[in-house]
# Entry
Amino acid sequence: MDILRVAVFGAGQMGSGIAQVFAQAGLDVVLIDTEPGFVDRGMQTIVKYLGRSAEKKKITAKERDDSLARIRGTTNAHEAAGCGLVLEAIIEDRQLKQTLFRELDAMLPPEVVFASNTSSISITSLAAATKRPALFVGMHFFNPVPVMKLVEVIRGAQTSDETMAVIHGLCQRLGKTPVEVRDFPGFISNRILMPYLNESMFALMEGVATKEAIDAIAKLGFNQSMGPLELADFIGLDTCLHIMEVLYDGFRDPRFRPCPLLRQMVAAGQHGRKSGRGFYDYSSA
# Structure
């Protein structure tokens, strides 16, 4: 199967980045969201990123213009017709994702491949909302999408070998490195990463060290570019909490219990960089 046209649902930070890398790889892309403002912001993000890349001579002006010409933003879900792949990158809410895939399944031909960019929700459970579980796969991109090379490719309980082969080939066309994992809570990346961030929050809550000290130890001792609390702010504390809850619900293991401080901060609307405040203050950024 040769995929030439892709629909990306969700024009946020991840969705716009995914649309961009598809377009840069030569595919036609329809970027779809529920509100014109969301679509406009997503398109503006792509224009800004490609513009910076051209200014830094990472791509030519022609490559920038050609990539932009391949992307069309819309609020009309029916414009996904004619796409070989539909990729969902909406918020991490199982019911919303299942509803979207159920609607798309009824709307689109049975040979269209469905993919989700979810970072933790069961691919098998999302595929169950459709009549095409063999053509359903997880494609977990990493932020920032144009820079990060990894794509975690998640095989659901009924994902076919043919579908996996198509997605592996597509990732390579994007210049990404596909790594296959099975469908367990948090997959591999977040099963490892989130407990690390969560334990750092426990250390802060218990007064073991200041946030600056915890992050300095990780950066200087583990050779990390960002400390765990800074990274949690970058990811979004609400997203971290959601993933920890998926892990805890999936395994029922106390080691995945979300830190009470994390719950408190999310309840207070302190979600990290995107809200202007998390473990650090970004109001002047």
Q: What stands out?
A: The mean pLDDT is 96. The longest strand covers residues 136-141.
